[in-house]
Design a protein that fits this description.
The structure is a homodimer. Chain A is an alpha/beta fold and about 270 residues long. Chain A has eleven helices and ten strands. In chain A, strand 7 (about 180-185), helix 9 (about 190-200) and strand 8 form a beta-alpha-beta unit. In chain A, helix 4 (about 95-105) crosses helix 6 (about 125-135). The radius of gyration of chain A is 18 Å and the shape is globular.
């Protein structure tokens, strides 16, 4: 019957966009979401710290008997997925590999752009995966640290954001890039801005959508789809109760979130 | 002789500007600095979380036998100072009270502006202190969440920062504000931008300078100035080793920082 929930985690609220895609593509699945709102953002932190935080969250999700884990955060996927996958005996999928596959399929010029947090870009994990998929691909990367704060300040359609986008993305034009991976959960909210900067022809790859697709394929292949037909439950946990989580959840999710529980995540240091 | 160090802490690197002022005004004092680089920023988090993190840091500083604690972060000063002061038997000073005193002294129009993080502004602690100092003062406050990310991205002299400053600060002109508290350690770096926006006549109050002055007065009044005449030691601890800390420290401090140690700060939950 496989009624155990799928655990989804993120450094904060951004992973709710991945959750939304999972709800759309897998409406029969129970979900447990954890947002690390007390320690957000991850994008400027070291690999060691991102692994420690991701491990604590994994330990917490295991107490919820999850049957699979989705790392909905690009930074944690880039830096902690391998370490997490080694520690648990359930499937773990991140957003980077599905995003890389979609980008490799989308490009004709074989020039792919990747934007993300400083930590994601520094990790070079998109480069590694894309070259694994096709060694002929040229990968051009750029960290865009101001994009997430601009989105969080509500400036998704604004001359300031356009100005910053021009500076961050200008060099992609020189490389004849025809596919751009939006390698941070906040960036799809800037799709209009990015299209204004780079033109309509560039394909914007949103790993959230691709990840939900990969998750579905994985659940089918492992024969762990929830086939019970019973009422579905979605649970939300955070490390800090912030107004932002509730308002973002209400904006992004198809269902209203009536209960969000706070977890002292630091307590999950040991398994 | 009072050779015990002074403990200084901040959510990250910003408190180093306060440390610099302490070094200038109190060159004979030993210092232990802690920057919570793994969990930065505090400005968007809840009071409960800021108190928990500040308590852990205080517990850590106590293991270093500090004779006094300076909370160099506006957000932690605004939300956690009272709670910390209750838990320890050494003097604790924050940046808010000294900043409020200086602003109350600087204003002639009795209209004072305060800018800071969302959490600092929401706490209304500057309003409370300023009204305590003079009930006739009108306090106009504004959260400026993009200022710190803009400074961290190096855009201290930039048309984008000017544009954002115009939006954040515009309303201060309507209130005949003649003194503005720079209520976040990053903001003094935007003094030029703020002067361009609000004119040369407005007095910009930097709590870092005022805090070092208050600290000196307190050490004198409690008779705990270091009078040993021995070589001075400055120690630096962080919760995450980030490139940013080292580069910011090198830019801000008069001495080069040759050793920075990482502390697992979550372990200091209990005293």
């Amino acid at each position: 019957m496989n009624q155990e929930p799928i655990g989804v985690f993120d450094s904060g609220v951004g992973g709710l966009t991945v959750t939304r895609e999972i709800m759309r593509q897998l409406p029969e699945e129970n979900l447990v979401y954890f947002g690390d709102t007390a320690r957000v953002p991850y994008g400027s932190k070291s690999k060691q710290t991102i692994i420690r935080y991701s491990t604590q969250i994994t330990n917490f999700l295991k107490t919820k008997n999850v049957k699979a884990i989705v790392i909905a955060c690009n930074t944690a996927s880039a830096l902690a997925l391998e370490s997490i996958a080694e520690k648990v005996d359930i499937p773990v999928i991140g957003v980077v590999w599905p995003g890389a596959i979609a980008a490799a399929e989308a490009t004709k010029t074989k020039n792919i752009g990747v934007i993300g947090t400083a930590a994601t870009i520094k990790s070079k994990v998109y480069n590694r995966y894309l070259h694994q998929l096709n060694p002929e691909i040229t990968v051009v990367t750029k960290a865009c640290p101001l994009f997430a704060p601009l989105v969080e300040e509500g400036l998704v359609e604004d001359r300031v954001t356009d100005d910053i986008a021009n500076r961050y993305l200008g060099e992609f034009k020189d490389y004849n890039v025809d596919a751009l991976v939006l390698g941070c959960t906040h960036y799809p909210l800037l799709s209009n801005t990015i299209r204004r900067t780079l033109g309509d022809k560039i394909k914007l790859v949103n790993p959230a959508y691709e990840t939900a697709k990969s998750l579905k394929e994985m659940l089918i292949s492992k024969k762990i789809l929830n086939t019970s037909g019973e009422e579905v439950h979605h649970e939300y946990y955070v490390s800090d109760m912030t107004d932002q989580f509730t308002s973002f959840a209400d904006r992004v999710l198809p269902f209203s979130v009536d209960k969000i529980r706070v977890v002292n995540i630091e307590k999950y240091e040991q398994e």
